[in-house]
Amino acid sequence: MSTDARPRTIALLGSTGSIGTQAVQIVRQHPEAFDVVAIAAGGRDLGLVARQAVELDAELVAVAAGAEADLRRMIDDVARSAGRPSYAPRIVVGSDAATQAAQCGADVVLNGITGSIGLRPTLAALRAGSTLALANKESLIVGGPIVKALAAPGQIVPVDSEHSAIAQCLKAGDHDEVRRLLVTASGGPFRGRPREELHDVTPQQALAHPNFSMGRVITTNSATLVNKGLEVIEAHLLFDIPLERIDVVVHPQQMIHSMVEFVDGSTIAQCGPPSMLVPIALGLGWPRHVPDAGPRIDWTTASSWDFEPLDDEAFPSVGLARQVGSAGATYPAVYNAANEECVDAFHDGRLRFTAIVDTVAKVVGDHQAQAGELTVEQVLQAEDWARGRAQELLAAQ
Ligand SMILES: NC(=O)C1=CN([C@@H]2O[C@H](COP(=O)(O)OP(=O)(O)OC[C@H]3O[C@@H](n4cnc5c(N)ncnc54)[C@H](OP(=O)(O)O)[C@@H]3O)[C@@H](O)[C@H]2O)C=CC1
Ligand SMILES: CC(=O)[C@@H](O)[C@H](O)COP(=O)(O)O
Ligand SMILES: [Mn+2]
Q1: Residue among 24, 73, 84, 66 at smallest CA distance from 50
Q2: What GO molecular function terms would the record report (predicted)?
Q3: Distance between start and end Cα atoms, the chain
């Protein structure tokens, strides 16, 4: 499919996760178009890392945690079984391993790491001049102006399904012709339930996303609608549209992945059955569509699609995200870091579902951002502070 003379080289960050493993599927399907040269993971499943390294013939294998000797032994075992005993990639272990993979000079760095820990790899990929296929929305949101200042026009290609959709819809007109962006939301597993019914929902219920199989953090964020709050800020940063011209529309079937309304009243939507394969493939192959990347809509079967307004009372997370997005500075980083702490606490049984966003709101309310230009150090300091403040509130409840 590629018009490039040779396959694009890819660094795959978060290779063992939901985004990462689906990216491997795309690469497996299109070896003529994509060549994975580096993979990075947290290190929770070294066996999978070893299997991916051998299958993809990666030159660099990076993990945040784990023993290098164990990973080397596993890679050796898999390589021997695969009839390639001489395969010996460079292995990097440690907290900056993903950053090293990000700066390897690949044509495309797909950042599929979860959480704001993805910030340094995002910055490294941009500094290295790679195209950044961005699933890790947190790094853009917390880094905000720092990430934007580093990125050349078109260097960041969104992989988040809504933003991939908007990027495609925006091809229909110029920036000054856009009236508003419409970010669609599934509404999560608790759509339609009033706030008083949400206090005691369980982690298992929160993880039952209606349409997508994703990692724990984003799935929980879909249930609280924090994901949609993050996505509104993400859209604002990616497309330079003011927050007040970005609306959220609940669309339970998630067949429309987002829309752009133009000044003449025309709305362009991007549709497809809910699947991340298409946005991931488009992120790797941008601006070219990858043949047969994902499922297609069957227009011969009767079906209907629904749309509803967002219930801001049951789900105050989007309104809060608009506030932090408009305050800028370290406020989005504080919102995200406090949320990451609260999601863990919810899954550990230390926090009720509705207290996730209530606690995030308290932490945001207590935050005092420093004046002046935002720096990475300020972001990291604010995140530390937010995590600590969230833990104090959790301990005091
Ligand atoms: N899944 C989806 O459909 C979508 C995801 N996204 C976004 O994509 C990102 C990834 O989500 P998802 O794939 O669901 O998450 P997962 O939890 O499934 O995967 C996260 C991946 O990141 C790796 N990782 C964690 N910490 C580090 C680290 N320090 N260095 C390197 N790798 C690390 C994990 O490895 P390990 O398991 O070893 O820790 C794992 O491979 C998130 O930002 C999410 O919001 C956006 C749209 C859709
Ligand atoms: C697939 C994807 O991009 C996720 O961010 C997804 O959008 C989650 O859906 P909701 O947050 O709308 O439930
Ligand atoms: Mn999304």
Answers
A1: 73
A2: 1-deoxy-D-xylulose-5-phosphate reductoisomerase activity; isomerase activity; manganese ion binding; NADPH binding
A3: 56
Amino acid type, 394: L
Q: 286 and 280 in contact (C-beta within 8 Å)?
A: no
Q: Assess contact for 66 and 43: CB atoms under 8 A.
A: yes
CA 195, 196, 199 angle in degrees (round to 5)?
90
Classify domain 8-158 at the CATH topology level. Answer: Rossmann fold (3.40.50)
What distance in angstroms lies between residue 225's CA and the mean position of ligand 1's atoms? 18
Q: Which ligand 2 atom is nearest residue 221's CA? A: 11
Report whether pLDDT(1) > 70: no
| CA–CA dist 34, 269 (Å, integer) | 28
Yes or no: say if 155 and 131 are a contact pair by the CB < 8 Å rule. yes
Q: Please give the distance, rounded to the nearest whole angstrom, from the Cα atom of residue 222 to the centre of ligand 2.
A: 6
Q: 19 in ligand 1 pocket by Cβ < 6 Å?
A: yes
Closest ligand 2 atom, CA of 162? 3
Pocket flag, ligand 1, residue 294 (CB < 6 Å): no
> What is the CB-side half-sphere exposure of residue 230 using CA atoms within 13 A?
32
Contacts of 255 (CB under 8 A, 6+ apart): 271, 272, 273, 274, 297, 305
Say if ligand 1 is within 6 A of residue 234 CB.
Answer: no
How far from chain centre, in Å, is Cα 258? 16
Q: Is 11 helix (H, G, I), strand (E, B) or coil?
A: strand
User: What pLDDT, on the 0 to 100 scale, is given for residue 5?
Assistant: 81
* Digit-coded pLDDT (tens) for 2-43: 466 899 999 999 999 999 999 999 999 999 999 999 999 999
- Asked if residue 210 has its Cβ within 6 Å of ligand 1, the reply is no
Name the amino acid, one letter, at 163: H
Its ipTM equals: 0.99
Going by C-beta distance under 8 Å and a sequence separation of 6 or more, which residues neighbour residue 154? none
Atom 15 (ligand 1) nearest CA: 215
CA–CA separation, 383 vs 340, rounded Å? 10
Q: Rg (Cα) of the chain, in Å, rounded?
A: 21
Give the nearest ligand 1 atom to 138 CA. 43
Q: What residues does each domain of the chain span?
A: 8-158
Strands 256-262 and 246-250 come out as unpaired
